[in-house]
Every structure is written in C-alpha cells, then in structure tokens.
C-alpha cells in the first residue's frame, strides 16, 4: 500500500514530518486530584490522578518512596467496530507497565515515602499512537495534581513506511506493517525515558526515525507546557479575583 | 515548509468484502494551502518545481469515466499536461484491474511526461465533503478554480467520458472560460491531426459503445443472461466463494501456462500460500480453460485424471522448436486435471496480430465489421475485433489489446491499437518482436535531450576546469588502450598499465564516467532507467542513452581526453603479481590506442599486423604495447586460475553473427570465434566488477546493488543426467567446482560436438543471474555468484549500455567520498533506499530478460530467413528419445528440436540419401536410452540412435504447414503460417548426403581461413625455412581434409602425418603457438586425433630461442587426454615467454627459477581453461 503519495502527502494530507492536531484540557474529572484530556488527531485519551494518599494494601507499602500504580484501559467504544478488551488483557497490562515506568522516572517519589499515587488512563477514541497520548495525558494530570516531578514527560511515535520516516502514525499507518518507534523524554534535561519499537528496521534508518520521534515529543512538550501555563494563569487569576 | 492549516474530521463508510459488512470509519483530513497547482503560470505556487509545461495548448482534466475509458490514449507519449485529481484517481483505482492501474500510475508518476496529480482532497481551496465529490458539479468547480489560479494563461478542458450527458455546456466564470467536453468532441477537436490518437479513439469507442449496448440489452431482458445454458462457458465464481475456496484449500491459485505446441492444452502450477508443491494441473480444452489467457493468474478446481502415455505423446508430436514444457509431461504418467473457475488477474499486454486470412477475403470498405485476428503468439486465442478499418489492416501486423471475454462468445474481444507494417516486411517483423517483448523504442524526449552538454563543431565539449581539481589525472602516467569488437562505437572500458618506481606495476580498468553526465533523478536518468539496457539486434540497436553520450562524450575513444571511473590495482611483480593495493575513484584518461580483439591479439603475439590493422606509432611503442598486453594477459590468467580453483564454471554461449546485405537480409551466418584476447579483457572486467561489488557492499551493507547467481535447481539437470548415464559419464552437480571438474573430464574424452552440446545444456540448466539490493536479504552467503565463483559481484563495466552499472558507479563514488572523510563519523547518504533499489533491480532484471529474449528471437528470425533461402546440414547431438522421434541439439546454433522418425501415417522416415533404396517395412522400437529402426520382416536392427550420438541433420525453414494439435480440435482451425512466420524443421541426413559433404568442406575452409590470418608470417620467415613452412601449411590443410573425411576410418599413418605437420610448422616458426592451439581446438580435427588407437607419439616442440620459449620434449601418451596435455604444454611455452619478457633483467637464482617454473605450471593449468563465463 502507498502511504506517501506521489506529491509527498500522506493519506490524511499531512507531510511525513508533520504531527496531527494536538489538543489538551486540564481538570476534566472533578473527583480526581489531577486530570487531563489529551487529543492527537482522532486519538483521545483521558487521565486521572489520585494521590498521594495512604497505601491501601499495606504489604505493598514502600518505606522510602511512593508507590506508583497505573491502570490503562480502552473504552469499549474507542475503536469503532474493532473489538478490543478494556483492561486486564496482555496488551493493557503491558501498556500500564510502560506508562507507570515512564512516569515513575519523572516523579520525585522519595519525597513522598509510604504513600501511593494512582494513575488511571482511559482511551476514549483510538486512532494510533495511544501509548504516546496516554503518557502525555498522564503527565499533564500529574502536573495538575501538583505532584513533584523532575521534569515534564512528553511522548511521540514515529514510523518508517515506503522508505520515508513518518511522524506520529495514525491507525491506518500503524497497521501498515512498518516499524513503530515510541519515544518518551524529559524535554528540559533532554533525556529519554522510554524507547519502544515494534517490527524491525535497518540500523541506519533507526537513528533518523528515533530523532524524528524525539523532535515530535519535544513539540508535544512545548504544547503541554503552554497548556499548563495557561491553566496556572487562570488559577492565579481566580485566586486574585477571590 | 508550511504545515497544514486546518483539520477536518470526516466519516466514511467502508464495505468489507469478506464479511459483507459496512462499517463507519472516522478519519481526519488535514487541509493545506501549500499544494502546488504545478503550472509555471501560477505566481502563488512558484516556490515549487512546476511540472506542467507553460506552452501547452490546453490543460486536460479528465473525470473518472474518461480515465477509465481512455487511459490507453492518455498513455500515448503525445499526451502531456494532464491533471489527475486524487479523488478521480481513487475512483479509477477501485474500478480498474491491478495491472492496468500500474500502467496508468506510470502516466502520472513519470516525470518526463509532464503530467501532475493534484491533491484536491487536501487542498483547502478545493476540498469538499466526500458525498459531494462524486457530483459532476464538483469537478467543474475544481476546473474553474484551476483556470482562475493560472489566470487563464492556458485553457483548461474538463474531459468527460463517452455517452456522458452533462457536457458541452461551457462554464463561464468571471475571469475565465472552462470547456467541458465529451470525449468524442474533445478528440475530434484537439487530436484530429494525429492519426494514432484518432485511430485508437475510434477503436476504443467502438468497444465501449458495444459494451454499453450489451448492457442495455441485458437490462431490457431481450437477451437472456448468459450462463443460463446458452453460454459457451461457465460463469466464473464470485470473489467471495473464490476466496473461501482458496482458504479451504479446495481451489488452487496459479499462473496459467498454455502449451505453445498445443494451445488447447494448458498447465497451472499452483502457488497457494504456504504450499511448496511441485504439482502440475493440466487444463485441457477451451471449455475447461474457461476464458483464461496465457499468463493470467487463475483459480482452478482439481479433479484426478489418468492420461495414458499415448495421449501424452500426442501433445509432443508437433513442430517443436523449443520444447521445454512438452517434454516435462513425460515423466509423470498420472496428471491432475483441473478446470478454471475464476481469474484473479488478467495478464494484460500488447499482442501482435494479423487478420485471419478467411476474413480478409470478404472485407468491405468503411463498414463496422467484426473481424478475427490471429495473434503471433500461438498461445493466445484468436481475438475478435470490431472495427471500421478492416481494409487498412489487411495484410498488416498490428498491435492488439484484449478487453474482455463474454460468456457466450467464442473469442475474446479486443481493439486495435496501431499498425506496425505489412506482414513479412523486415521492419514490421522486428517491431513485432519488440512489441511482443514489451520493449518501447520511442525516441528520447526533447526535454531529456536538453540536459545533454553541448557538443557541436563550433563549440566542442571539453572537460571543465574544475574536474581537473577533483580527479586523478592519469592521461600521461598510464599507457592505456581499449580493446573491443571491431567497429564498436560505444567504448566503455579502457585498460592501462603503468610502471612504478619501486618496481611495482599498476594495472587499471577505466570505465566511462556516465554518472557524471547522467545525474540522479534527471530526466535522462529516468529515461535510461526505464529503458534499462541497450537492445542490440541484427544490424540495429536501441540505445539506452542518446548517441551524443553513448558514441561520443562517454565513449572512451582513442586520443581524446575523457572522464572515467577507475579501478587501479598495484601489483607486486616479484610476488606473483599479488595485488598490494586497490584504488577506486574518478579519473581523467586519454586512451592511446583503440584496438579490436584480433588486432590486439596479433600485437600481443608480436606478429606483423595485417594491412589496415596498423596503428600510428613508432616500433618502440609497439613493443611496449606488446609487453603491456602480455602483462595484462598474465594478470588475467592468474585471476582466472584463482576463480577456477574456487569452482568457476566455463559455460558455452553461442553468439551468431549475421552478415547482412543492403536490404538488411542475412547472407551469411557465422558463429563468433573467441580469441584469447576476448577472455583476457573479460577477466579484467570480471575482476573490476568483483572489486567494486565488494567495495560498495562494505560501504552500504543494506543498500548496495549486487548481482547474484543462485545455484541451479537439481531438477533442471534431469535430462542431462540421463544423457550422461547413457554415455557413461559421471556428472557431479553437487557444487560448481564438482560440475566444472565433470565438464573438464568430459572435454578430455575428446568428442567436441558432444562436449559443446553438454556445455550448452549445462548453461541452459543454470538459473538466471540477477541484480538485487543487499537490503533484501542481509545474509552475505546468499550473494554468491555461482557461475563465476565470486563472493560479491556487480555490474560496473558497461554503464553506456546497462543501467545497473550507472547505479554501481554512483554507489562507488559515494563510497569513495565516505572513505575520503576518513573519520567515518560523517555518513554519506546512500544513493537510494533499499526498497527503491529493490524496485529498480527488479525492473532492470525484467528489462534484461526481455531484451535478451528479443535478441534471441531476432537471431532466430534471421536464422530462419537465412535457412529459408538455403537449407543447411549441421552436426547435432541426440539428447532425448521419444516414441516417434529423437530430440536433438545443434551446438552451432544453440538450437533444440525434435526430429520425427515417423510421419503422420506411421511410416518410418529414414535419413535422406540412405544407401539402400528401401522397399522394406520398418518399425520404431523405443528403449530407455535409444531408439531403433528395425526391419519388420526379419527383425534386424537397421539403425540405432542412442543418447549423445552425433547425427547430421538438415535445418530448413518451413513456411507452410502449421497445424494445431490433433488432441483437441475444438475451436482451432488452420490459421496458416503467415501469422506466425517461418518455423524450423529438422530431419536426419545420411553422411553421404551432398549437403553434409558441403557442410564438411565449409567447416574446413573456415578453419583454414583462420589459419590464413597467419600466412603473411610464412612469407616473411627466413628464406631457408620458407619452403618448409609452405609445405607445412599445405600439409596442415591436407590433414584437415583427412579429418573431414569422417566416413572413412582415419588411417594411422595419416594421423602421424598430422602430428608431423604441426611439429614442422612450429619449428619453421610458420605457425605461432596460438594457431596450433586453434588447430587443435578445431573440433573435427581433434576428433580425428582423439579417437585414434595410436599409442604414443613423440611431440617435440623445438625451443624458440629468440623469444625464449620453453622447450618441450616429452613422450606423450596419445590417449584421450592428448588434447589437454598438449594445450598445457603449448600454454607453458607461451607463458614462459610472457614471464621472460616481463622479468628478463633480473638475475635468476636457482630458487627463483624453481619458483618461475612453478608459476609456469600454475599458469599452464589456467591456460587449459576454455571459454569464459561472462
């Protein structure tokens, strides 16, 4: 299948190095300590953070740092008629683990010993790149909850199809059989906290694709910072108004 | 670069074929304002490279109907400035077959054609929601936008399909006018002057209208839907049931092969996924074939059927020119029969055809008629064409395309594309060969010619100054010469030698720097890529590059400064010419001498040149040139030996050379003679290729273009092994080394015709060498070149005539840059991505295959034309036995064929001019490895033909009787030979037939004429020896005559005389070593010697004191190995000479002498290797 047309446009009209539209909202779940909704094109993810609070299961309590738990699930309606189970299957477990590890690296857990932080991520609409969107949403939710972090975490995916590196694959491109590299990084310190790849790719192209994904993640980080800044300004305005 | 400006979420319904479900798919569309309109007239999109020509008479914007109906016309080279909208293309793709779509795709992806694709779906100005795109108003709006966008500089025409209703109404906008034209009006308005467009349009529109009428009738219910009992054929199964059947395993998928000799007989080799079966399914009869055409991918339903041996034979019992498919049936007695139930993929291509003779008789002027056409390819059924141009097509060859095949129609329907010329006209026939092989020979486009550097008389091209800075200048440091066939204009390789101060020597291979002129991605590059290779035919060639490049600027002609890409080896003279260093890079060279093979050969041997062969130089230069050539020879020899020890094969390839008269008709056929110089040059090229192959692989492990030759499949040796067994040879096919050794053993047997036949058959059994990208399969052990026994091999040495070489050049140059950067941190971008390279490699492979096939067909055509004038007798080898005849192979022309020993009435055919005038009744008795002709009355065996026997056959071209298979006469009737051209017939001749005698004398005279080449030497040799020499010559001629007198057993004393003659000749210096060599190699001559019962003879080759040739004085067993040993000895002598001339001055210590002797033996062994694989 042809993923990049003769005029250099992708199926949805983007050029190979362009991202989809990003959109984020904070405070979408009132109950939670922090929450965020993150959209990358048609992919829509909601994240809620509870904590830090006491550890429910005492046996899991860590004496020197906070316990971070993460639960990833997909809404039953998220994929149209492509059926995917919500949570508890192998894929969800793996993604939960990935998100937890990525974010745990950012959270200053040793400031909150013997406590627990719960992160719930749910995919409302899936169109490729759910992993990245989840990490971004969770990072925003953590920030909104005011949990101390080393740096923001931002993520983006890139692939390699028809001999061209493509940024931010959508579902059609994702199922094109090519490699899919997901990168999450700390934008300020410029350190990678997650690197995953499906399928295989010649080594000399990997560097390019990885760089591309990293660039994408940085762009996402800029947008996330903007959203957070706006949110903070709004809060400040509220405070001064009252 | 600008990013998208708006996003639109859209929903689309998607129909899933398999589950028949409709699902809703949400998708986003990113809209942008940076999509170029592609016209140079537009000011706002100027930042992008405009592709539409500014001077076009109009821009054409076809709608989906128009593209579907007339894409064949749009494919014509006249059509440029066509705007394809992506929404239109999407619709077209859904309705067009895959193959046609691929062809259509090349209309807009090929940059040379100046067509563009406009992404209207993503352009913010033209996008509309999906439901609106289908309406005709939408297209009109886009057209108007387009017209406004280019400010009305060029009129834009919206083309709608035939029978479209809403056309003719022109749209007027505030600024511009847009024409909306129906196809008929459009073509008559714009293309009336161009007959090829107009003709194609009329023939296409006729078929379209017809199809519409049929459809209308069906819907009216006036005609019963076909398939309901009345149709000739069963309806194909639906896609869903086909897919279900395939996945269940009931149905099988495969390519439909029609037997050339029995068109109603077809074969499918199923290739279901994950099924590596060697099953063959026979589909017999047109009904079961169910409208499948040769080459289609079909789905078959199988049912077991047992065919008896007799029926099998019937299939075989036909005129056989190349009986690959036919003979395969013999091995299995149970065949699986099947029936075609569906066609997955039509094999669309252009067919060459002519009208059926019966139809032609009743032609009337200018009336729409349905005519039957006979395609040239016998595997293709007759095609029905509805046309008004009947009279113009009569007695012509024309190109035909098949459209469809209805259930109730006996023949497929097609339309005529264009006429090629009258039947029997040489030009038309050659064009037919090109078309049948899919080779396009359009002239170079103007735009691509504009990219060429200027080179005229007033302003001759010269090397630009800046090139001197970046290239190594070896014009004066190296002594260089080119060696090519006589009269060749495209010289792409030059060899050079240079002595270094430290006693080392540099040898260089310099190849024309085509990649300097043909930049990657330029139109010229695209043109060269699409051609892939130069096609050489008898007396004419179609070049890959324009003649300015191929014959002038790139051609490394003598005495002119030229750009080259070189491989230079530094050799250690002291150390057996070991390669110390290999240098690659761009150079500037000036070839001193432009030689041809025979000339170079003569110079190398230090002979006087024939008149007209002289080169302009002092005698000093000549001796220098001689020693250089000897040096090259020695080096090539050692390379060859090296490969040989690793298992390289020497395969036979017969090249025919036709002498043609002014009407380009053949007057004489010859096989090319290979001189030692040929393989010396070939070996240098092979070594250069191998070095470059390794270099580019090391630099770009995942995207280098290499050439591999896979080991042959074991089954391809089956017939060969049978033959070997019959003859008592052992053919070990386990590895290339073993195979080479077996072939050598066979050579020692001394029967030359048989050996040649064997070699040719082994060559045929080889798999094809092919280009590939190393990214396909990263395992280096798969890159092996079986025939040449090399780890890495690529094509680098002929960039003027092969596209793959241009790519190799680019890669090499990139690899060299990488090396220059030294540090290795800075990565040089590779030339092409592996995927792209794979595509190109596949394309080039295909082009090579077709051009080879076309060349072969052309040679066959000329051979048959020649044989039509006069029949020829040739020696042939029996390679197969059937119940009714023998399969023979003619080594001289590389032909295979069936010789019938029984005619249609069952009477045995005896060889012509058989001694007894036979009133007797004979009968054929077939055994496993032989066939006997026995007398019916007394059962006495009269004649027996065993496998690997040599027989005389008469070759003649037959233009009359072609008949279809006797097995199934359904639908097939006599079509006459005029559709297919002459066919080859072979029959046996007895040894006393006048033709045989004539052939023998001809063989002889040609071998003597080879000796004639050296006659001037006899005249110039010393007075005393002169008489002796002439005597020797005469004796030699006589000796040849003896051997020609095959029938009589060769007399022992005569044979002694032959040996004597050679001795004398050598002593008298009348015959140089190589000519004795060639005399020995002369097949009949050596056959006469080799089969002797002579026990021993003393061969003494006197020492040639002047040149220092080694004296050989030895007892030789005159056994089977005579020839080989003798040759070794001669070679030893020859190469000692070479060694002495290159290292005379050094004082030789005993140790050195010993080493020199070892080297001499080493080389002598190499010399015994015959022809090359190249």
Write the element-wise H/E pattern of chain A from the N-terminal end onward: EEEEHEHEEHEEH
Q: In whole angstroms, how far apart are the ends of chain A?
A: 59 Å
Give a quick account of the main beta sheet of chain B: strands, pairing sense, barrel closure: 7 strands, mixed
Helix amount of chain B: 25-40%
- Strand line-up in the sheet with most strands of chain A: 1-2-3-5-4
Number of beta strands of chain A: 9
Compute the average pLDDT of chain B. Answer: 73
DSSP strand content of chain B? 15-25%
Number of helices of chain A: 4
Low-confidence runs of chain B: 223-229, 306-333, 960-976, 1008-1032, 1038-1061, 1064-1123, 1132-1150, 1164-1174
Q: Report strand order across the widest sheet of chain B.
A: 19-26-25-22-21-20-27
* Class computed from helices, strands and strand pairing of chain B: alpha+beta
Query: Rounded to an integer, what's the Rg of chain A over CA atoms?
Result: 18 Å
